[in-house]
Design goal:
The complex is a heterotrimer. Chain A is an all-alpha fold. Chain A has 19 helices and 2 strands. Chain A has a domain of about 210 residues. By secondary structure, chain B is mainly alpha-helical. Chain B contains 21 helices and 2 strands. In chain B, helix 4 runs antiparallel to helix 20. The radius of gyration of chain B is 22 Å and the shape is globular. Chain C has a domain of about 90 residues: Helix Hairpins, CATH 1.10.287. Chain C contains 7 helices and no strands. In chain C, helix 2 packs antiparallel against helix 3. The longest helix of chain C has about 30 residues. Chain C is elongated. The chains are: A mainly alpha, B mainly alpha, C mainly alpha. The interface between B and C is large, with 39 and 39 residues.
């Protein structure tokens, strides 16, 4: 292929700049909606293509960081490729294409205002997600982490109603608050202790820090990464559900929250180092907190009638799986966590897109109003069903593998209670997801107007159908995924 | 001092030899020229040209001293310490550059803004005063003679009072603001003179470098100590160190927009430079009283300022006033950098001077544009303007983000350094953990008050009577230059960080920093 | 502590005492008086005290005015010059500058007071304060930005 000659760093810049180009296009063609949306789609495809080229060039090797700017002595804005980040970038950019198609359908059918601003902010968010994925040190990661926060704020506040402004304030105050007060302190502290912030295999802190400080520093990170929605800093995620559904789907089920847990895995693996964490036992408390988050969020989800809110609490619970994987501090846990990024993304985006389709077609947001809708929208609800099964973790769906790996990890470290927690969580998942499907298909309380087949516009049902198929495909290719991620746990 | 020989070979060979003097002299001479021309048409071009010249000079000076060392220029060939000496090293070249950059960038903005806010017949004299103020600020920073600092301080202060009072054509409260500022400013300046008198009593010299040498082993001398107190309090009034800040909100709120832009970005910074000079170069942090002043007085005051002024800013309903309170809080950050007393802290302080100067100038310019379009800067008046003036508001957003210190903007780097400095000190004194925490906590308050502007601008409905049109291009260009710099300096630190670091090192060398290697201008 | 009350100490430092008394008088007037003109007067007294302070520190015991002695041919009398003790002229020169600055400040302050009188119709600080507080209240009323919205 002729693109072979392009070196990896150029491709990384391309992947980050195509979304920016798309943003510029949105600004420039804000009047002509077809030109604008096609142009963005083109950019999305090019972004995905760049990321795939990186995969083609690099495989699952770890490349040397390339510095763009030197900021302070020992701190650069630099990028490199490593499997976890590459996986994250592939997921985010690939799903962006689908979400964009879906978003166009959603925004147009729903008569939302300010399309250009919406898609422009969306593009910046994607660009910063790519930046997070390829950041080779904590400084760069934090930089894009905050840009992501700021650029998603207008998306959450998009409707401009007082409810959405209030939601956006909660969103912003928790994310900015935790990141500035806790995470930034932790990062600078790390820098002061070690003189570097580079992601290094095996961590950078070992031997530079007294043992009693490790849990404190870890706490600063764990709570500081508000995007990981660890309790008690999870409120922003339900609050962000006031945003239009494409935002909830891509950003608040995939990009933003995954950026959070991705950061969590990064600091666990490359800043602290898994061995260092398990030697000091510093992550023990984090493991229990994550377990608590898993159960508590699932229980809360059961009591939500608003579909998006229920899905949001489900996300909180699922994110804690990944945090748990890091906190288990062994290779199985880290692998499981990494893999769950992909599996959960695929499943949850399906669920959200389905929720959006329902809203587009019938303007229903509450689960109690959805009786019988399954017969009217069979494709949507079938996709929903598959996504839900994947989230629950049943074979033959992708979501089953990471759970398996996490349980293996828990067995290795002899945390049997964690196994029980994981099992219980699966039961709770069934309890809050299955009734939705059941009510839609089998409820006797039929509403006459929704009895007939009346599916959402094709732009709205096709993307979730594709991702639902993706959930099944991932089950069979999980082995490849595992091999791909293996370098992150090698010494 | 060993530079007598140097002076002899240094008598006026070339124009470039006179750069340190020209830096101050060009705007100084422009002022009377503007008055003599007496024509409104010439006033602005003349002022602008002389600002550009000072900018070029300051950049040239910066290029010469950025690697360390200093330039010594003796006025009329009278050897220091008796004669007046201008002494440029990385520290004051840095501040000179800040002042002249802002001065140059504000003038294109001021042209329209002043035309809108001030009666035509006052324009000529206003630009003359503007030049005098510019001179005073540059002179305060360039000079190496303590009494000369006072003279330039008063030149800048007196012209500032006049400039502030010009706001009276819009709101009569500008007059009382100027009057209050005059009373407090004069008391401050007089305190400064008293301090100098005491130093003179103890040492018999007023040359800063010479002073430093002569008090080096007089740490126990009570006269020297009380001199320190008077100097710091006097200058602290100009800096608006927390309890001495009362003049600031009113003056910034009611002064003409362009004047506020200029003052907010330069005046407090020049004064802060003088404080740094006295604390580090003349006195020495090795003196227990100087160190105690920093840790027992500056540190708590800075933290109180950071929180209380930010807190007050949160509850303002007028953008200019909110920004004024925010300035007090930001001065707190700079002061904190000094008080932390290590390399990172001092670098942070100098860097924040620059970054805050840029961000605040940008925001006040934004406020100025909004005043131009809507007639006021109350939130109710400017609400929804983000949709009507996207280009202006875009710049405001960048300025606001830099003020908060969001990564990717210049403000982030200085805040980062500040936290780093505090954490470095926490290794030997765990109290500094609290300091680090208070820095990040107080920047949350900045998020609150800055975000309010964003919400007001973008998420509210605008007054339908206001046409949606952008600001004049003359105003947009400086705004976007500043916005661009806010972002650029958030990534590339080659220019600012290196120089600020060199400047901090100069200061930390204490009195020795004043007697590094002399750089010969003619050679460059 | 005792030496501060000895007569010799007091007379030896009498100029400092006067300086302090004058300075405090000036400051007190600035703080205490509500009449703007009186404040300016206080400021002047305060500044004058500093001038006195400077002038006094230039004084050398038995020193005379720093003027070169002339011989009968109106040339500098080198021989006599060696024997004469001069006061230090530098503080005096410095304070000339400060006096000029003081005058400028005073005139600017008075000019401001004239303008204040024109627009506020009073030069009493209390009255002005009341007027301004009312203006601020009116502003806040007119441009009320609901606290509920803000929080």
């Amino acid at each position: 292929m002729e693109f072979n000659s392009i070196d990896t760093i150029t491709l990384i810049y391309c992947a980050m700049l195509f979304p920016v180009l798309a943003m510029a296009g949105n600004m420039a063609f804000s009047g002509a909606k077809n030109v604008r949306d096609t142009f963005t789609l083109l950019c999305a495809i090019l972004t995905f293509f760049s990321v795939v080229m990186i995969l083609y060039n690099v495989g699952n090797n770890v490349t040397e960081p390339v510095s763009l700017f030197n900021v302070f002595p020992g701190i650069d804005i630099a990028f490199n490729v490593e499997p976890l980040g590459l996986l994250f970038a592939i997921i985010a950019s690939g799903l962006w294409i689908l979400t964009h198609i879906y978003g166009v359908g959603y925004m147009r059918s729903n008569n939302e205002q300010h399309h250009a601003r919406f898609f422009a902010c969306f593009c910046i968010a994607i660009s910063s997600v790519i930046g997070i994925a390829f950041a080779s040190n904590m400084f760069t990661l934090f930089l894009f982490y905050e840009i992501l926060t700021v650029s998603t704020y207008p998306l959450v506040a998009h409707k401009g109603t007082s409810e959405s402004i209030r939601g956006a304030r909660v969103y912003l105050s928790i994310l900015i608050g935790t990141s500035i007060v806790l995470q930034l302190t932790a990062i600078i502290w790390t820098y002061v202790l070690t003189g570097t912030l580079d992601f290094t295999q095996g961590g950078i802190l070992e031997g530079k820090i007294s043992d009693w400080v490790v849990p404190i520093l870890l706490a600063l990170y764990a709570f500081g990464i508000g995007k990981a929605a660890l309790m008690p800093f999870h409120k922003w995620l339900p609050a962000a559900m006031v945003a239009p559904t494409p935002v909830s789907a891509l950003l608040h089920a995939v990009a933003v929250v995954k950026a959070g847990v991705f950061t969590m895995l990064k600091i666990g693996i490359y800043i602290f180092g898994i061995d260092f964490l398990s030697d000091t036992g510093a992550s023990e408390w984090l493991m229990w907190l994550a377990a608590y988050s898993i159960i508590a969020a699932s229980v809360i989800a059961m009591y939500q009638d608003n579909l998006k809110k229920r899905l949001a609490y489900s996300t909180i619970s699922q994110l804690s799986y990944i945090t748990l994987g890091m906190a288990l501090a062994n290779s199985m846990g880290a692998l499981g966590g990494g893999m769950h990024i992909a599996m959960h993304a695929m499943g949850k985006i399906t669920l959200f897109m389905c929720a959006g389709s329902i809203y587009v077609k019938y303007h229903k947001t509450e689960i109690s109003e959805m009786s019988g809708l399954g017969r009217a929208m069979p494709i949507t609800f079938l996709a929903f069903f598959i996504g839900a099964l994947s989230i629950i973790g049943l074979p033959p769906l992708g979501g089953s593998w990471p759970k398996f790996l996490l349980i293996m990890g828990a067995i290795n470290t002899e945390h049997y209670i964690i196994i029980a927690v994981l099992m219980l969580s699966s039961l709770l998942n069934v309890a809050y997801l299955m009734p939705i499907v059941g009510r839609a298909f089998f409820s006797s309380n039929l509403n006459s107007s929704v009895g007939k087949y009346n599916e959402a516009p094709i732009l709205c049902w096709l993307p979730p159908a594709i991702t639902a198929i993706g959930c099944i495909v991932l089950f069979f290719y999980a082995g490849i995924l595992q091999d791909f991620l293996t370098p992150i746990i090698q010494k | 001092m060993a530079n007598i020989a140097h002076v002899a070979e240094h008598t006026a060979r070339d124009l470039i030899d006179h750069l340190p003097l020209l830096q101050v002299l060009v705007p100084f001479c422009t002022a009377p020229v503007i008055v003599l021309f007496g024509s409104r048409r010439f006033a602005w071009p003349l002022a602008f040209i002389s600002s550009v010249i000072s900018l070029v000079i300051s950049v040239m000076l910066m290029m010469i001293v950025r690697e360390g060392g200093y330039i010594s220029y003796t006025l009329g060939g009278w050897a220091p310490p008796l004669g007046i000496e201008y002494r440029i090293d990385a520290t004051n070249a840095f501040v000179l550059m800040l002042i002249s950059t802002i001065g140059t960038l504000v003038l294109p903005f001021a042209y329209t803004s002043i035309k809108n806010e001030i009666r035509n017949r006052d324009h000529t004299l206003l630009y003359a005063c503007w030049m005098l103020c510019f001179t005073g600020l540059l002179g305060m920073v360039a000079t190496g003679d303590a009494f000369n600092v006072f003279v330039f301080l008063e030149i800048s202060s007196l012209s500032t009072y006049v400039l502030v009072a010009q706001g009276a054509s819009k709101d009569r409260r500008a007059l009382t603001a100027a009057y209050d500022y005059l009373i407090m400013g004069t008391i401050g300046a007089t305190f400064f003179v008293i301090g100098l008198g005491m130093l003179y009593m103890a040492t018999g010299t007023l040359n800063l470098a010479d002073l430093a040498d002569r008090i080096a082993n007089q740490g126990a001398n009570r006269t020297v100590r009380s001199g320190f107190a008077f100097v710091i309090v006097g200058m602290g009034l100009k800096v608006a160190i927390f309890p001495l800040h009362l003049w600031l909100p009113k003056a910034y709120t009611f002064a003409p927009s362009a004047v506020t832009v200029f003052l907010s970005a330069t005046a407090t910074k020049a004064a802060l430079y003088v404080v740094m000079r006295f604390v580090f170069s003349v006195y020495n942090p090795d003196f227990s009283f100087a160190k105690n002043t920093l840790e027992i007085i500056f540190l708590p005051l800075a933290i109180i300022a950071m929180f209380s002024a930010s807190f007050v800013a949160v509850f303002q309903v007028n953008m200019k006033k909110m920004l004024a309170y925010s300035s007090i809080a930001q001065v707190g950050y700079m002061l904190l950098g000094i008080a932390i007393l290590n390399e990172a802290g001092l670098t942070a302080s100098l860097l924040h001077m620059f970054n805050h100067g840029f961000a605040k100038a940008l925001l006040f310019m934004g406020a100025g544009v909004l005043v131009l379009k809507t007639g006021g800067s109350f939130y109710l008046q400017i609400s929804g303007m983000g949709r009507k003036m996207p280009i202006t508001s875009g710049a405001i957003v960048i300025g606001g983000l830099s003020l908060i210190g969001v990564p990717g903007t210049a403000g982030f780097l200085s805040k980062w350094l500040l936290v780093q400095a505090a954490l470095e000190r926490s290794a030997d004194n765990s109290l500094f953990l609290v300091v680090a925490l208070s820095i990040v906590l107080s920047s949350l308050l900045a998020v609150v008050y800055v975000w309010r502007i964003f919400e007001v601008l973008f998420l509210r409905e605008a007054d339908v009577l206001i046409p949606s049109s952008e600001a004049p291009i003359m105003m947009l260009i400086p705004m976007w230059i500043l916005a661009g710099s806010c972002v650029w300096f958030g990534f590339s630190t080659d220019l600012l960080y290196d120089v600020a670091n060199q400047a901090a090192l100069n200061l930390l060398e204490g009195s020795m920093g004043m007697s590094g290697s002399i750089l010969n201008l003619g050679m460059n | 502590m005792g030496k501060f009350f000895e007569l010799q100490f007091l007379t030896g430092h009498i100029h400092y005492l006067l300086f302090i008394v004058l300075m405090m008088t000036g400051l007190f007037i600035v703080v205490d008086k509500t009449n703007l003109v009186k404040k300016i007067i206080g400021l002047n007294i305060f500044q004058v005290s500093v001038f006195m302070f400077y002038v006094s520190i230039g004084k050398v015991t038995d020193g005379t005015a720093p003027i070169f002695p002339m011989d009968s041919n109106y040339h500098v009398d080198q021989a006599a010059m060696q024997t004469i003790l001069y006061s230090n002229p530098l503080p005096h020169v410095l304070i000339l500058t400060a006096i000029v600055v003081g005058i400028a400040t005073t005139s600017l302050g008075l000019a401001l007071i004239v303008r204040i009188r024109e627009s506020f119709n009073t030069i009493d600080e209390e009255d002005i304060l009341q007027i301004e507080q009312k203006m601020t209240r009116d502003d806040n009323q007119k441009y009320k930005y609901l606290l509920r919205d803000m929080l």
